[in-house]
Amino acid sequence: MKVAITGGIGAGKSFVCQRLRLHNIDVYDCDEAAKRLMTSSAPLKKALRRLVGKDVYLSSSVLNKPLLAKFLLESEANQQALNDIVHPAVARDFMESGKDWLESAIFFDSGFNRRIDVDMVLCVSAPLEVRLRRIMERDDISREKALEWVHRQLPQEEVERRSDYVILNDGVADIDQQIKHILTLQNS
Question: Structure pTM?
Answer without folding.
Answer: 0.88
